[in-house]
Amino acid sequence: MSRIWLGMIVALAVVAVGVVLMAPEVFFPGEQPEKKAPLETAQAPESDTQGGNTATSAPSGEAPPREEEEAIALEEEAEEYVERLAEPTSEPVPVERADHFVRPDRALSLVTEEVIEEMTPEELFADPSLEADTPITIVKEVEQVERTTPEKIIAESGGDLEKRVKVLEGDEVRETTVRKLLEEHQAEPEKPINIVKNLKYFEKTTPRELKEDRSLSGKKRLRIIRTPYSLTMATVAQLVGVDKEVAADAIFYVRTVQPGDEQGIWGIIHHGLIENFARGIAIRRGEALDTYRVEIPEHADERLPDNSSSYLGKLIFEKTKQSSVYNFKVGRIGKNPNLINPGQEIVIVSFTPEELIAIYKHFVNEQG
User: What is the rounded distance in angstroms from the CA atom of residue 102 to the CA atom of residue 254?
Assistant: First the structure.
């Protein structure tokens, strides 16, 4: 009997242990479950809690599209070109041959060649119209080497590709044309070039002072200006500032009126953008000089019923109305786009850096 009871007790104990083992774990308040190693099962993609994207989506720092990269690069290229377009230089722009993009503080030489005479000191002293203390101006020239770049050379030459320049290479000076020089440097548009220039400066004196100058020989020819000149130099800001306020970051296109300027100021600005500005772009990009030949209709300035016109046509039309004209014969500045006189006037056109940057991008984009 005792054996039977003992067997039943053992059997009940075994059943109770099995029930306990199969029951879910229960924890009392304050207890923490024991950590267990995770099972090796397939995991779902992790969520991006901020954007709701899965881990398989593109990272937030993804590079911009190729078109955007190219646009940013072109913008930076245009900004650098415009910044260097009118770099400061000590050489004044001659009003007789002006065809330059310049800053407001760039000096203009207001003395023309026709008022300069050549004579020896003997001839000067023998001239009965000159008294001992008559004010005269001696014009002197000195050679100076300027370190420059191809794009600046085209800007200084005003689109005249046949203009002759002197180049210093080592200890030798050779003479060539702007066209040949630019072709030689087409593959290296950033390479510096040493140009030899003749700088003109003016010295006021009198016949009495010249007689006392023992460095002069009787046969040495002098270049003199008989008539007294109160103004031989002036900056663009000084000329234009008489007529309107000048922005510190403005860039001016100055151009002497030539006999062939039959299209007036419209044609002069057109020339500046195509022959000067656009060729500079080609040089900078290592391309042929006439790569950027954007056609601007001759009558693009006409205001049609729908007010349509080419981009550059409208811009030139507006700049024509805003331009200033300085007559260096009489020393007067004003505005009269319908009346310009070759050989005695320069046209001065103001641009903002943003306008020139937009023009640069327009030329490049037009060529694809």
Answer: 7
- The pLDDT tens digits of the residues spanning 340-362 come to 888 889 999 999 999 999 998 98
User: Which parts of 20-109 are beta strand (E)?
Assistant: 93-94, 99-102, 107-109
Q: Compute the C-alpha angle 152/366/273, nearest 5°.
A: 35
Identity of the residue numbered 358: A
Question: pLDDT digit string (tens) for 88-135?
Answer: 777 788 888 888 899 999 989 888 888 889 999 889 999 998 999 999
Alpha carbon distances (Å) from 308 to 179, 269, 294, 303: 37, 20, 18, 7
Q: Cα–Cα distance between 279 and 276 in angstroms, integer? A: 6
Q: Give the distance, in angstroms, between the CA of residue 19 and the centroid of all CA atoms in the same chain.
A: 89
Q: Are 176 and 195 in contact (CB under 8 A)?
A: no
Task: Please give the Cα distance from 256 to 97 (Å, whole number).
Answer: 6
**What are the tokens at 338?**
């319908």
